């Protein structure tokens, strides 16, 4: 019974990590599978026909050991290997066998010693370990030769699940030395499946090996599912937890990374009795810190683990990559040389450095290290896959295509490489439009209409962004117009799923078509505003050599959208400010990529912009530019803030919060006293409600006293407050005529009374509310609608302009303004608004018709021609568009 409880608690802990609620970004993590696995394991470890010794061995194998089970050296050694405790004193006991001692030595990085231990050992496990040690030493030819007996034994001998799993693991290592075929991967997966589906359904190492194999193919979801399945059969498997930790790093699940790291440390501590630096925990924490652009914190984690395991190659390679991201060339060279001394010819350190630099968008530097890794091990697919994906992001198409073709030859089953190659080949066949500063690449057909619209406006956009950032990129930026959301996602990540619809990778900006339909995530949107945002990334990344903090480049990009903050963002910021929920400078970077709450990503964008405004207002426009130059020089954010702004992180946060409170006060979000205070006063003045409130207060006092005596939580206090009746609102309005909350309540009551319609008597009230709360679009919507219906277009125009300036996704306000300006003979203003409507919905023939008509009336024949030519692309079967173009030709020739 005790064993059942221990096992159940361990499995529930692993299940909790797999299905964390309230986090939409982790919804793809599968639950533990299957629910009856625990029962199967428990039955297997307590079968009546087993001896006590066999039961003990099985409990160790399934991670359900007790203290008594670990009293024999062999059991303790196996448990230590499962838990990742490779320096346990038991490995000094020769009677446990050479294979167990050698495996621990390999994990510690004592590779030559392990090879000496394995002399004369001839099991499949020993042969697999021999291959692993030689591979880590960089002795690839010897590792390849050492793997040959594995192949012959697996062909001629009947082996059980352990032998089959070890054999496949050896062959997986060997596959890095020779070009793969499609059948290689299928055979390995089939053999592992046979091990845990036919030979032993509870042999979790085969499931873990399958999870690792799937991860190497970038089949992330399947890999996670397999890792969780292996945990269901052994909740103390450090290898399984580590694999899930890497998956959490990939998806930027910071909380999951930390929870898994702590789990790994507890596994270690349970055997050692000491809280030593766990290598698996250090690795996943360090990788998470690197994703947050914090290499110093990453170095601290790895350095602590290296104190314990100074020869472990995986840690040494990662530490070398961290030096690369600290931009310490001397330290990087020293660490590479030291790694070379340990493992001459190994590709591991160069690969880790290249991948880390690629993730940090240091494309030129990354390419050299990935190419060197590939040269050292030409048939290893991983460096070439990473190189191809990196070159896709850098916009060097020919190099990307060469690398991706090679990558898919080496590994035909890698999901991201295969998807990216298919798209890269398509991209090279697309037409392109070139301007002074940009190249626009688009799929053949009607997308040419959008491309031409962009081409006419991009260079003006370039001048605005470059002037603000104070920097011009050295090469033309490529815009790629992706026809569907799935193709856009593959372009950015290599996988068909992504939360956004436009993205910048530096010199390349990809945008999903602004269209409505099942294959389009965003629908219609103002492409010019979005393009300014993304091009701001290109320019700030260029100025900083891609070393800018995530929040800072997003802040500059929102700043350069050149649009006023809308009411939704004002309300989001104000609520977070009031509740003390604004991010600090570390949290905000995480919120962009791994939001814990639905509003976190939106809040990160809004707050970043707010902080950028604060910097500009307090220190001037040159301050962001000076910070960018500091980042370009490799200076960390904290040091740059202290030197340029004179404030550390906490000092900056406190100064920003003071400024933010003053700025938010101008938005009219809260009045004094608050509406709640007014309702409380009205409640106490009401005889019946006041009596209820007093009774509730006395009850609260008793509950608080009781809670304090018994150390309970303080009870929640809530009483029914007086509703804002028309009589109360009228009185409040008399006492507080400019109170924004009271004015809002009055407006809503009047609208309810009038069944949603505005009449002339409401106009002064709406105007007072608009003045008291200048960030709310509600009064402007009602006033615009009223004046348009009343035929007073001139009075509607200021409200339509207010609404249009804050709109990103709907063209209705721009169309209405275009028509009103046109009727007033303000044709230049009308054309500006018609062009904005086209920018939001470039595939709309109606908007193109409107713009063409206004352009003709304004005698702007070049613009009229652009719109008519676009119509021939959007509606090729309508002769009317060609006829109008011919008429335009005659008109211009005659003129």
Account of the protein in words:
There is one protein chain. By secondary structure, the protein is mainly α. 68% of the residues lie in helices and 2% in strands. A 5-stranded mixed β-sheet has the order 1-2-3-5-4. A hairpin with a 3-residue loop joins strand 4 and strand 5. Helix 41 (793-805) packs antiparallel against helix 42 (812-823), helix 42 (812-823) runs antiparallel to helix 43 (827-840) and helix 45 (861-874) runs antiparallel to helix 46. The protein starts with a helix and ends with a helix. The relative contact order is 0.04. Residues 1-35 have low confidence and may be disordered.
Q: Please give the alpha-carbon distance between the first and last residues.
A: 98 Å
Structural class: mainly alpha
Helix content percent band? 55-70%
Shape, per Cα inertia axes? globular
Q: Give a count of the beta strands, DSSP E runs of length 2 or more.
A: 5
User: What are the segments in which pLDDT stays under 50 over at least 5 consecutive residues?
Assistant: 1-35
What share of the residues does DSSP label as strand, in percent?
under 5%
| Computed Rg | 33 Å
Q: Give the spatial strand order of the biggest sheet.
A: 1-2-3-5-4
Query: pLDDT average, as an integer?
Result: 87
Largest sheet, strands/sense/barrel: 5 strands, mixed
| Total count of helical runs of at least 4 residues | 46
């Amino acid at each position: 019974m005790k064993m059942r409880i221990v096992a159940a608690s361990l499995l529930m802990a692993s299940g909790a990590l797999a299905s964390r609620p309230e986090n939409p970004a982790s919804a793809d993590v599968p639950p533990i599978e299957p629910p009856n696995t625990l029962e199967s394991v428990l039955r297997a470890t307590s079968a009546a026909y087993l001896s006590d010794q066999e039961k003990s061995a099985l409990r160790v194998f399934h991670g359900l050991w007790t203290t008594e089970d670990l009293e024999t050296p062999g059991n303790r050694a196996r448990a230590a290997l499962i838990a990742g405790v490779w320096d346990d004193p038991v490995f000094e006991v020769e009677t446990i066998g050479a294979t167990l001692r050698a495996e621990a030595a390999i994990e510690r990085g004592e590779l030559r010693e392990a090879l000496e231990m394995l002399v004369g050992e001839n099991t499949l496990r020993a042969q697999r370990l021999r291959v692993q040690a030689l591979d880590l030493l960089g002795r690839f030819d010897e590792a390849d030769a050492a793997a040959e007996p594995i192949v012959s034994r697996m062909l001629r001998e009947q082996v059980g699940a352990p032998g089959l799993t070890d054999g496949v693991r050896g062959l997986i290592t060997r596959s890095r030395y020779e070009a793969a075929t499609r059948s290689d991967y299928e055979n390995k997966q089939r053999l592992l499946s046979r091990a845990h589906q036919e030979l032993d359904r509870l042999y979790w190492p085969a499931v873990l090996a399958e999870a690792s194999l799937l991860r190497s193919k970038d089949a992330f979801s399947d890999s996670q599912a397999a890792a969780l399945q292996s945990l269901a059969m052994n909740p103390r498997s450090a290898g399984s937890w580590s694999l899930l930790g890497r998956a959490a790093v990939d998806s930027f699940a910071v909380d999951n990374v930390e929870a898994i790291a702590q789990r790994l440390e507890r596994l270690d501590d349970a055997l050692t009795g000491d809280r030593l630096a766990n290598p698996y925990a250090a690795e996943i924490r360090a990788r998470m810190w690197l994703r947050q652009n914090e290499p110093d914190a990453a170095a601290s984690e790895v350095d602590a683990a290296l104190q314990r395991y100074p020869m472990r190659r995986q840690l040494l390679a990662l530490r070398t990559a961290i030096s690369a991201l600290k931009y310490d060339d001397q330290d990087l060279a020293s660490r590479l040389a030291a790694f070379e001394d340990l493992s001459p010819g190994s590709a591991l350190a160069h690969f880790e450095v290249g991948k880390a630099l690629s993730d940090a968008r240091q494309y030129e530097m990354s390419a050299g290290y990935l190419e060197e890794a590939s040269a050292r091990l030409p048939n290893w697919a991983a460096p070439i896959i990473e190189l191809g994906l990196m070159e896709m992001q850098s916009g060097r198409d020919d190099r990307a295509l060469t690398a991706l073709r090679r990558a898919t030859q080496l590994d035909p089953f890698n999901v991201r490489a295969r998807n990216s190659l298919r798209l890269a080949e398509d991209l090279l066949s697309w037409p392109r439009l070139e301007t002074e500063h940009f190249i626009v690449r688009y799929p053949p057909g009607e997308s040419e209409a959008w491309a031409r619209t962009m081409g006419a406006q991009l260079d003006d956009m370039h001048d605005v962004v470059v002037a603000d950032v104070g920097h011009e990129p050295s090469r033309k930026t490529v815009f790629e117009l992706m026809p569907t959301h799935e193709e856009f996602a593959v372009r950015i990540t290599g996988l068909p799923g992504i939360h956004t619809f436009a993205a910048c990778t530096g010199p390349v900006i990809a945008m999903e078509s602004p269209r409505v339909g099942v294959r389009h995530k965003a629908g219609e949107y103002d492409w010019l505003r979005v393009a300014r945002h993304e091009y701001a990334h290109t320019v700030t990344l260029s100025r900083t050599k891609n070393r800018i903090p995530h929040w800072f480049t997003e802040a500059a990009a929102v700043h350069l959208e050149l649009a006023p903050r809308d009411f939704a963002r004002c309300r989001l910021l104000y609520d977070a400010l009031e509740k003390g929920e604004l991010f600090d400078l570390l949290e905000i970077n995480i919120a962009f990529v791994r939001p814990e709450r639905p509003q976190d990503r939106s809040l990160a964008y809004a707050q970043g912009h707010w902080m950028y405004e604060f910097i500009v207002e307090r220190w001037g426009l040159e301050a962001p530019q000076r910070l960018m130059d500091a980042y370009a020089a490799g200076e960390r954010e904290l040091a740059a803030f202290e030197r340029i702004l004179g404030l550390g992180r906490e000092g900056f946060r406190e100064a920003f919060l003071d400024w933010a409170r003053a700025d938010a006060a101008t938005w009219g979000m809260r009045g004094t006293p608050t509406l709640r205070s007014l309702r409380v006063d009205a409640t106490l003045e009401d005889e019946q409600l006041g009596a209820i409130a007093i009774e509730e207060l006395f009850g609260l006092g008793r509950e608080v006293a009781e809670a304090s005596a018994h150390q309970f939580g303080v009870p929640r206090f809530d009483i029914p407050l007086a509703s804002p009746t028309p009589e109360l609102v009228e009185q409040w309005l008399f006492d507080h005529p400019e109170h924004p909350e009271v004015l809002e309540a009055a407006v809503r009551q009047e609208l309810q009374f009038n069944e949603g319609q505005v009449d002339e008597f409401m106009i002064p009230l709406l105007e007072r509310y608009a003045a008291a709360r200048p960030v709310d679009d509600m009064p402007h919507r009602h006033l615009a609608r009223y004046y348009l219906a009343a035929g007073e277009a001139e009075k509607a125009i200021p409200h339509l302009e207010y609404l249009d300036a804050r709109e990103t996704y709907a063209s209705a306000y721009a169309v209405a303004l275009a028509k009103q300006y046109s009727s007033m003979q303000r044709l230049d203003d009308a054309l500006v608004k018609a062009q904005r409507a086209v920018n939001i919905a470039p595939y709309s023939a109606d908007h193109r018709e409107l713009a063409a008509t206004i352009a003709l009336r304004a005698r702007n024949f070049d613009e009229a021609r652009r719109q008519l030519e676009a119509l021939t692309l959007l509606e090729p079967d309508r002769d009317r568009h060609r006829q109008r173009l011919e008429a335009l030709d005659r008109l211009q020739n005659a003129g």
